[in-house]
Write a structure and sequence with these properties.
The chain is of the alpha+beta class. It is built from four helices and eight strands; from the N terminus they run αββββββααββα. The protein has one domain. It is 39% helix and 26% strand. β1 and β2 form a beta hairpin. It starts with a helix and ends with a helix.
């Protein structure tokens, strides 16, 4: 019993030590992935502003005493002349197999999407994972106006996207995540701007 207890304590301490040593590299990699996704969905903006969701309102400063990585954020992209080109937000909801985590870019004035990037998914290989790997499916969202609907047929409708055959649940998960994200962020951004962006 003593040997097992000592062995368990040593193994636990070893795991904790390895976790502490690798955590900064893991966090740095996650930050780089998010930064890259923001630039991709907004078309490489010249400048970014970050707003934080604090008590259901947007703020330029994160809440005190909170790990900044845990605070929900909205990224505003500007071109080299200072004109806003769009905003990007993270959002996730259940897919077919697990949570689907997206970075979504859109124009808040028109509700038109500038694109999305999958930050994480565990959908069925060869089917559901096409939400990340099928560039044709991803491209169908650019310029579409939310709220978006899905269809199995080819479409030219401004608010309808053709889903992936055999991966309807995963396709619809992406659509739901996008619609819910815009429904959450657009009114809060409008309120923030109405109050003078303070």
């Amino acid at each position: 019993m003593l040997t097992l207890a000592l062995g368990g304590a040593f193994a636990g301490a070893l795991v904790a030590s390895v976790y502490q040593r690798t955590l900064p590299a893991i966090q740095r990699s996650a930050d780089e992935k998010i930064g890259g996704a923001v630039h991709e969905v907004l078309g490489a903006p010249a400048r970014l502003d970050t707003l934080y969701l604090v008590r259901d309102k947007l703020s330029r400063t994160p809440p005190a005493g909170t790990e900044i990585r845990e605070v929900r954020k909205l990224f505003i992209g500007f071109d080299d002349k200072g004109n806003r080109i769009g905003v990007a937000v993270e959002a996730s909801e259940p897919g077919f197999a697990d949570e689907v985590h997206l970075m979504i870019g859109f124009n808040p004035a028109t509700s038109a999407l500038t694109g999305y990037v999958v930050l994480g998914q565990k959908e069925t290989p060869g089917l559901g994972d096409k939400i990340e790997k099928d560039t044709m499916f991803i491209g169908r969202f650019r310029g579409k106006v939310a709220p978006i609907k899905g269809t199995k047929n080819s479409t030219t409708d401004a608010s309808t996207v053709q889903t992936i055959t055999g991966a309807t649940i995963s396709s619809r998960a992406v659509i739901k995540i996008i619609n819910d994200a815009l429904a959450l962020w657009q009114p809060r951004l409008a309120e923030f701007e109405k109050e003078g962006g303070k």
